[in-house]
Amino acid sequence: MFTPDSASSPGPTTASAAGNAPAAAPAASTVPDASPRSTPSAVAAAGPAMPRSAPTRLRIPGIGVDAPFTGLEIGSSGALDPPPADDTNLVGWHAAGVSPGERGTALVAGHLDTATAPAVFARLSELDAGDTFEIQRADGTTAVFLIDSVESFRKDDFPDRRVYDDTPDALVRLITCAGSYDRTAKDYTENLVVFAHLQATG
Fold first, then answer.
1. What integer is the mean pLDDT of 134-146?
2. Are 201 and 50 in contact (CB under 8 A)?
């Protein structure tokens, strides 16, 4: 598993894949705080939001994703622990942070591939701005998110603040690996991030 050199090092890292390739996970120092939110009261919320509730299922019909969630924690390395690498159809969320639909930035990580097969986020790069996806939640509600952009960043130049900073809006980041696979480092060279905001609730 690739780990950051320090808590301030850029970019998500998780273990996955073809040769232990990381999928995605933020350094501890950049992960938004858990609820209740630390959003300044002076900042007016611009969009809809939902009360806290754990996510149970991610559905992105356009790329064939229909996957359950598991909670992820910050590991001893200072990075978010990855979802289990032996399950190709599983996504993880930072369980001590924002839940999808809450005000703030919720983090959802998934593997790109495993040593033997593509994984849940293998087709994440096919998404475009304007596409939608939904997250079912433990309280029986569904959060529908509208994608604002889909971008790749080199792991040695990852925009921590842009991806992880707290916000008065209800945002989600879907994160996985991208770029070429560096067999020496046993890591992909980039992370793919889907930036999305809460569009509707149900």
1. 98
2. yes
